[in-house]
Amino acid sequence: MSSDNRAASAEPGSEPGTTEVDAYDELELYRRMQLIRRFEERVYLVYLQGEIPGTLHQYQGQEAVAVGVCDVLRRTDWITSTHRPHGHALAKGVDLRAAMAELYGKATGCCGGKGGSMHLGDPSVGMLPAIAIVGGGNTVVTGLGLAFKLMHTDQVAVCFFGEGASNEGAFHEGLNFAAVQHLPIVFACENNLYGASTPFTLTSLVPDVAARAAAYGVRGEIVDGMDVLAVREAAGRAVADARAGAGPILLEFKTYRFAGHSRGDVRGYRSREEEAEWKGRDPIVRIRESLALTVGEEVLDATDTGVEAALDDAIEFARQSPLPRAEDALTDAYATVISRESAP
Amino acid sequence: MTAGLPPSQGGRRLTIAEALREAIAEEMRHDEKVFLIGEDVGVPGGFGGAFGVYLGLTEEFGHERIIDTPISEKAIAGAAVGAALMGMRPIPDLQYSDFLFECMDELVNQAAKMRYMSNGKLSVPMVLRCPVGTANRGAQHGQSPESYFVHVPGLKVVCVSDAYHAKGLLKSAVRDDDPVIFFEHKLLYGSKGREQAGGMDLTSYVPEEEYFFPIGKAVVKREGTSVTVVATHMSLYRSLAAAEELARDGIECEVIDPLTLLPLDEETIFASVRKTGRLVIAHEDTLTGGWGGELAARVAEECLFSLEAPIRRVASHDVPLPVAPVMEQTVVPSVARITAAIRRCCEG
Question: Given an 8 Å threshold on Cβ–Cβ distance, is B270 in contact with A343?
Fold first, then answer.
């Protein structure tokens, strides 16, 4: 399913994951995808039990994208994320306990309870607080790339966004600016076909977001977002190109969210047949079937057990963690607070 | 006449444009992480920014640090936010503050909130320079939108009116770890505004040696005992002209330039109001929802029993800006309107 809009394609093979991948490498991809899947399923349950405030935008079905892309990134590379950031956060290495505690609104959360589900992030692993404004990351990411260019580092920034964001002005301004500045950025579009309830076909006459790259002199590629190895291969080439100064690159991952847009969505706008068809391409099932032939069921089951244990631990950690102090709400708006000394 | 400007100390006098240029050059020499980004800022043979502030800087610092962009305000602001998050100190330029509305998401949702959302782990040290004010440019090139940003926790808002404070504040803003929106008035950059500013000398004394002026500190431009007048930009100079006129009638105005609108220097303003018992606020931003209303509310909360008369505000009328000079001068605060407001306040 991978295609390349530009005749001269990038050189493969310069980053890990572009050629032979051994079975235990694939097992690790499986483990990370399974961790995200089970994280989302268990979070949903504790959410229904009233343990988590706010709302949830869940990532089931799209795990191959976050895991495949982040697998080719270094800890010093950065990502921007969206209102649906749980998968990106776990794939980039945000601490599982800290991510769970953040959803619980606890002081031990990765944002101290100030961010919550839609703003998960941790600068220490190269993830900005997720940006929950559609298209918001598409301009901010250019500044990450510009900083890397000006500082002469070889870091890369990846901007995750949905197909809906490609109708925002920010998508176009960000992509064009990144292009004329040759910034080390990979724009990673997760096309899950619906912006909330609205099908992409109702909002764009161009069926492929990747095609929009040509308008800016940028390479665009369509990638099977339900195949973690295909994702990793394409991302590996794109990131290597960006790192070598041939950025930006736009990757469009065709994918599907198995759950609704947000917590209360009963998905009346899409058919159960369509859902079944996409679930038939479940990226976790796919790689598990292949791994059963190599590492075997026993190893896979042990991996699953490990995932559940980690989630048990994270949920228990979040439950036991202290709430933020109420007065902490008033800190961190400013780095330098200028005191107001008004007499009563 | 040099009313309200720092007293000449025998040294050189610079325009605001020259002072800003000097501040930027000094900060770029001091810290390689400082860079300029915007439209028409460094193109060879170009304008050096819409108001010439950057002339000559590309020759010294090169195009890598003076970055010309597409006409993409969202990209300019977004790139500044992102670079600042990575530890750079960008100085984005938007040519006209009316264009701020093109990038409200980057400023209000991203720049102002990243530090908070990250629980203090990140900061956004950037200074967005924006020319404000009427200059016969009409409804979309003459607004003074400071108040929109005074409303945004996480931002700092500065308004400069003379070269000395422009330089000192810009240097402080570049070294500040928070995002600063830095408003300058088009008629105050150099000599062009002299006529409309009442024939005043718009240069001011700027020391040769390095100095900083702190964010969050107001200055008393003229001392007086009858009434406190708080004003920015052109309204400041018109207030000073009004004060000259009123002094002949025995009304002694204490004229304050707040310089920073967010956070506001309440201490200086409240102390003056407690002394004079009267307050007039003048700004070119429109009246309704303008920052003058916020100041009036704070003074009413904290200094009510010192007041001897109702607080008066003089602001642009609540209409878009016209081009025809006779209409434009009707909309923005004039010396006559400010004088009348002060008289009314002093009669109360």
Answer: yes
Question: DSSP assignment of A15-60, as one string?
Answer: STTSS---HHHHHHHHHHHHHHHHHHHHHHHHHHTT-S-S-----T
For chain B, the domains span 13-205, 219-347
The answer, for A330 touching chain B at a CB cutoff of 8 Å, is no
CATH architecture of A3-330: 3-Layer(aba) Sandwich (3.40)
φ, ψ for residue A283 (rounded to 5)?
-65, -25
Q: Do B85 and A144 touch (CB under 8 A)?
A: yes
State whether residue B183 is helix, strand or coil.
strand
> Which positions in chain B touch A114 (Cβ < 8 Å)?
116-119
Q: Which fold has domain B13-205?
A: Rossmann fold (3.40.50)
Please list every residue in chain A whose beta carbon sits closer than 8 Å to the beta carbon of residue B275. none
What's the pLDDT at A21? 52
| Domain B219-347 class in CATH | alpha beta
pLDDT along chain B (348 residues), means of 10: 46 91 97 96 86 90 95 98 98 95 98 98 97 93 97 98 96 98 93 56 88 97 98 96 97 98 97 98 98 98 97 98 95 97 93
ipTM, interface predicted TM-score of the complex: 0.93
Of A112, A131, A139, the CB nearest to B75: A139
Selected residues 45-84 of chain B with any CB under 8 Å from a CB in chain A: 64-65, 67, 69-70, 72, 74-75, 77-84
Tell me if domain B13-205 and domain B219-347 are identical in fold. Answer: yes
Cα(B33)–Cα(B85) distance, integer angstroms: 12
Reported pTM: 0.93
